[in-house]
TrEMBL record:
It comes from the Eukaryota. Keywords: Cell membrane, Glycoprotein, Membrane, Transmembrane, Transmembrane helix. GO terms for cellular component: cytoplasm; plasma membrane. This is Uncharacterized protein. Belongs to the CD36 family. It comes from Allacma fusca. GO terms for molecular function: scavenger receptor activity. InterPro entries: CD36_fam (IPR002159). It is found in: Cell membrane.
Length: 235
C-alpha cells in the first residue's frame, strides 16, 4: 500500500489533501460569445488537458465544475460535469420532468456508463493501465466501480455509488446489509430548463477498498475477496 501526504505516523488519509484547501484555479467560459458554453471549464490550474490517464479522451476537461451551467437545457442533451476530486469528467442524462416548489425542472442523473468497465463501455479504456496490477484488474474488469488511485497518488481507493448501486452482483453480495436504492443513492441534478440553474441536487459517492487474499500475511491468507466500503457521503 502506498502512503501519501507525509503523515508522521504513516496513516492513510484519503481526504487529507482536500481538507482546508481548494482545488486550484479554474478558467471558465462566461457565455458572452456562445450562451451554450456558459460555465464550461476551459483550463484547470493552467492545463487544458489532464495527465492522469492513458488517453486524451479520458484526460479531456469537459463540462461545468457545478458552479453554473449553460441555459436552454434540452431533454436529449448529455450534460458533462468536471469533478476535480476524481480527475475526470462524468456524464449526466435526462430522466424526467417535474416541479420543485412550483419551478419547472428537468431531472438529470449520473450515467451508469461512467461506472462501466472498458469491456462494457469501450470509451472507458483509457482509465485502465496498459499493464494492470491485480488491484487494477479488479476495478477495470468490473462494472459499478472506479479506480481512484491514479488521482490520489497511488492510494488504493475505489469509488462507487452508495451501497454499490449499479455494481455487479459479486460486489453487492460481498457485503451484508446493503440496500441499494435509486432514489437514495443516485447522483441527481434538477435543472431549470430555460436558465440552466440547478434548482436542487445531490452528489453521492462511496469510498471503498479492494480486499484481496494475501498469503504472506496469515491474517489475510484466507480472506474472501471483496470490495469493502469505508463510507459514503452526500452533498
Amino acid at each position: 500500500m502506498k502512503f501519501f501526504g507525509g503523515d508522521a505516523e504513516g496513516r492513510l488519509k484519503c481526504k487529507r489533501l482536500r481538507n482546508g484547501s481548494d482545488e486550484g484555479w479554474f478558467e471558465v467560459k462566461n457565455g458572452a460569445d456562445n450562451a451554450y458554453e456558459t460555465g464550461q471549464v476551459v483550463r484547470h490550474n493552467g492545463a487544458s488537458l489532464l495527465s492522469t490517464w492513458r488517453g486524451d479522451s479520458c484526460n479531456q476537461i469537459r463540462g461545468s465544475d457545478a458552479t453554473f451551467f449553460p441555459p436552454f437545457v434540452t431533454k436529449d442533451q448529455v450534460t458533462y460535469l468536471y469533478i476535480a476530486a476524481m480527475c475526470r469528467s462524468i456524464k449526466l442524462n435526462y430522466v424526467s420532468s417535474g416541479k420543485i416548489k412550483g419551478v419547472d425542472t428537468y431531472k438529470f442523473v449520473i450515467s451508469l456508463q461512467n461506472w462501466m468497465s472498458p469491456e462494457s463501455n469501450p470509451e472507458n479504456w483509457c482509465y485502465c493501465s496498459a499493464a494492470p496490477t491485480d488491484f487494477e484488474n479488479d476495478t477495470c474488469k468490473t462494472n459499478g466501480v472506479f479506480n481512484l488511485a491514479p488521482c490520489l497518488f497511488g492510494a488504493p481507493i475505489v469509488l462507487s455509488q452508495p451501497h454499490f448501486y449499479g455494481a455487479e452482483d459479486w460486489i453487492q453480495d460481498g457485503v451484508i446489509g446493503l440496500a441499494p436504492d435509486y432514489d437514495k443513492h443516485m447522483t441527481t441534478v434538477h435543472f431549470h430548463p430555460l436558465t440552466g440553474t440547478p434548482v436542487s441536487g445531490y452528489a453521492r459517492v462511496q469510498f471503498n477498498v479492494d480486499l484481496i487474499p494475501f498469503e504472506e500475511m496469515p491474517t489475510f491468507a484466507d480472506t474472501r475477496h471483496a470490495m469493502v466500503p469505508i463510507g459514503w457521503m452526500e452533498t
